[in-house]
Design goal:
Strand order of the largest sheet: 1-6-5
Distance between the termini: 36 Å
Strand content: over 45%
Number of helices: 1
Number of domains: 1
Order of helices and strands: HEEEEEE
Radius of gyration: 16 Å
Largest sheet: 3 strands, antiparallel
């Protein structure tokens, strides 16, 4: 029982460490970030945003460590990982 408890506590600590180190996001001028959510145990993040010309429509995408940029139409996103 002690092994499983230690494994569980280690996994929780690892997830907390990854959550405390989110990427820095530079959105395009036409978008506003409304949410970031850490996914799983790795360095995956779900980014939720709205476009300024349609504020009632939320959009999202997922990034992982190593992603440095994203182009969506004319919008260019930049990501900086610590």
């Amino acid at each position: 029982m002690g092994f499983w408890k230690d494994l569980f506590v280690g996994a929780v600590a690892y997830k907390a460490l990854k959550q405390s180190n989110p990427p820095t996001i530079v959105p395009p001028p036409t978008c506003t970030i409304v949410g970031m959510k850490h996914l799983g145990l790795g360095s995956k993040w779900k980014i939720t945003y709205i476009k300024k010309d349609s504020p009632n429509s939320k959009r999202n995408f997922t990034i992982s460590k190593g992603t440095s940029g994203l182009t969506s139409g004319t919008d260019r996103w930049k990501f900086h990982w610590n």
